[in-house]
Amino acid sequence: MIFRNSFFALWALAALHVSNGFTPATQKSQGRLSALFMADGNSDATIMVNGMPGPMATAAAEACLRKGLKLSPVAMTGPEIEPCTITVSDMVSGKSANVRLIPSTETDELAAAIAGAKEGAGEKNLLAIDYTHPSAVNANALFYIDNQLPFVMGTTGGDRDKLMADVTAAKHFAVIAPNMGKQIVAMQAALEDLASKYPSAFAGYTLQVTESHQKTKADTSGTAKAVIDSLKELSDDGFTYDDINMIRGDEEAMEFGVPEEGLKGHAFHTYTLTSADGSVQFGLQHNVVGRTVYAEGTADAVKFLSKKLKTESEGKVYSMINVLEAGALD
């Protein structure tokens, strides 16, 4: 945190920058990364990663491979995708797996595939990761419940209240979170704690929020919403999600500071609290280029859930903060 004082104003800026994705510099360190990830060992869990060949689902599948998880030979894809088989390859560990993609409209075929995968992996060893589309969140959750398939919901959007109610009522095993990034989860936890201990500490301050994502992101940032919920507890501003300044165009994103190589996959967020007279300003920023930070956290979440299946008799909804508190972030 950097504090700058002047006669007229106090500026406090807390900035968290997280950069991911394999740049030439990181590619040179693949050997060190491989040793780090391979030391994690193998797991008996098999993961059905739904949403491929979408980039976030594919990144999560690659992270599962390098963390010692097996990929299910079948997975759900969007209704517009023709059935096909893809090869998921992780450049760090050198592992790969073939996965047949089945459209979500083919529910009978998917149910049969899940039953077959359970038979091969073991009843408690098959779990799902969902990185599909906001419009599919609620229907997919009910599908997982009906097929007794524990899941990690990485997809944002949908009716979140109904999602939580459906999963909770079914006593189903799930991890549901607006963000899977480890460091960002820690930041959110700290903000929640701050808001609970010092509510209205920023009374009279106004809030401004700008978030930028790749143009293919269909919904408002779930992370921004979660952070705003905490910041609203600290201030008395009537800020709503509709007041978020959303950037989805390449030119505007680059003006916001997104590097050109990050235009197809990034998450830049800036939150600013300003006092009524303008003399004090607090800023919070977290910028992510690439999808690795989310993919790594997702793989950790599914490993956490796999362990819960073996130690808990009744399912429940967990958050990424639960994963963080359990020390399950490798």
TrEMBL record:
It holds the Pfam family DapB_N. Pathway: Amino-acid biosynthesis; L-lysine biosynthesis via DAP pathway; (S)-tetrahydrodipicolinate from L-aspartate: step 4/4. GO terms for biological process: diaminopimelate biosynthetic process; lysine biosynthetic process via diaminopimelate. It catalyses: (S)-2,3,4,5-tetrahydrodipicolinate + NAD(+) + H2O = (2S,4S)-4-hydroxy-2,3,4,5-tetrahydrodipicolinate + NADH + H(+); (S)-2,3,4,5-tetrahydrodipicolinate + NADP(+) + H2O = (2S,4S)-4-hydroxy-2,3,4,5-tetrahydrodipicolinate + NADPH + H(+). It is an enzyme of class 1 (oxidoreductase). GO terms for cellular component: chloroplast stroma. Keywords: Amino-acid biosynthesis, Diaminopimelate biosynthesis, Lysine biosynthesis, NAD, NADP, Oxidoreductase, Signal. Its EC number is 1.17.1.8. It comes from the Eukaryota. Residues 47-180 form the Dihydrodipicolinate reductase N-terminal domain. Residues 1-21 form the signal peptide. Residues 186-324 form the Dihydrodipicolinate reductase C-terminal domain. The keyword Cytoplasm does not apply. GO terms for molecular function: 4-hydroxy-tetrahydrodipicolinate reductase; NADPH binding. Belongs to the DapB family. This is 4-hydroxy-tetrahydrodipicolinate reductase. It comes from Seminavis robusta.
